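Just curious. Protein, please.
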Amino acid sequence: MTLWDYYHSIFDNRSLWQYYQDMPHLGKLTFSENYCRLFINNYLNTGFKCSIPGEMPSARVLHTVSLFFLGLCLFYNVFEGGKYSETERSAFIHYWFLTCFYHDCGYIYECKISPWRMNTTSMRAKLKSILSYLPSSLDIVKSPQLIIDYYEYRKAQKCYDHGITGAIKTISDLQNNHRNLLSKIKAKNIHDIGSSFFPGTKIKLTSDSFPYVAATIAVHNIWMGNSGNAVEYTKHGLGSLINGRYIYGDDALLFWILQIADTLEPIKKLCGSYTANTCLVNHLLHSIDMEFAPYRIMLKCDVIIPQFDVHSWYTCCETISKWTNIDVGKKGSKSIVLVIPGS
């Protein structure tokens, strides 16, 4: 099936993605900038959450909606979402929409498209408060100082695709928003399962779960070092990441779905960081085939799109084996297969 078909098969079954039952229906899923912005903010506003910044470039908005449905494809088809109870699946949807919709919000602040800053002392305190929510399998990136050092390293590289600033801004906004809600609206309008647990964790779905979302965003683009950047990593205090690997564990399901989906999602390879062309995006989603099976993903793109460097996309997808224990192989000349430990 094509990505377009997968996305629409999920979209047409609202129980697979809609957390809020009273969310207005927007009509057929399309990948125009206006529709995608409306889809994200309609979802967030129904739950009385903050909208994504209006300054967010169109390419990242379309990437986010694509990421949302790709992550759900992984949850249901690769990580066997059907084995969880209805309450657990609802919990995942809750965590996923928050993580996905806010995962790139820090970009506009780091690029200074929109003003917002936090000093290092405040950043360290915020990171310390959220990183403890990560599971033990992610201990390699749970140090606040390591995250700050990585933040400084990426700034020196003029790269703004990590989630550190976005995580801190997100947790601040969500917590402030939740406090305001408690004082302004009746309990029946607060959409919160409260007593249920996120799959594979001991974390309850309450306002206290927001740090778990923020921590996942903060570390989702912390890349391991190698011989090519070892000198720079060492210079910036990142020696512990050189030749390191993320080891798959069910206790970090949210992190893994974000990492894998964000690596495979193709719109950002087509459009870069700024402007999206709706016709090209639709063509691309119709041109990429994916097959999902438990702990296994196969992908290929046979259609030539001049603006889409398929070989660069393949290379990006293949690199996941360099910083995780996910195995990547080829099936013929035009297909890539990812095998996740646990199968």
Strands lie at 288-293, 296-301, 327-330, 335-339. The radius of gyration is 19 Å. The chain has one domain: 3-289.
